[in-house]
Amino acid sequence: MPISKYFRDPFKWLLFEIGAGYYARKLATGPEADIRREFVEFLNLPPTQNGNRRVRLLDVGSGPGHVTRGLARRGYAATGVDRSWRLLRIARRIARREGLEIKFERSPSDQLPFADAAFDCAIATGVIYWVERPLATLREMVRVVRPGGVIGTLDPHASMSIARVRMYNSEHDLNRRDARKMTTWATSAEFNRRFEEADLRQLLTEAGLAGLTLERRMDGMVWFSKGIVLPRP
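RESULT FIELD:
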């Protein structure tokens, strides 16, 4: 029986349940918050209105909802999905406090509880490198986004390592708290997966995306990627 199914995946889920509060605080400020804001600009999303309706956007693996709330504040009809009960409670609580109407659903990323073509765009920040079934997750994102819609991902490049991040921390004079956050991310990347360009392109293409744009950010350690959903066969 594959270890990934019977050990790694439940272990990862437990990490987020136990550490939900820490994770929410970790992503709220610092380099990871900055790079996610930069990622949203990279996506060059369509206007928030399409005719008489708001553009529908799905945040897969939304966690505490920091990115989801930012998109909702811009005017998108934002939905977040995550499988952590605790992170969803945090996300809903903050959204209510800020007066934002956001739907947060509980679901694994590779079994999304939405109809085909239910969204105009979907994003996954720091998700594809972490999940045990990255291709299945991407294919589900493709399924729930209309043909011609945009899908974007943010993941570690193959060069991200603990040693390289420590150099980055020093070169950018990060404070102790932010440096610790970055080192935690690098440790997670080493434990899971990091992407060379050819491997990431192949994964996105196999999922059903075309017109790919890939860019390296954060001194080359992070991939920004986006593609267009192909018409259904």
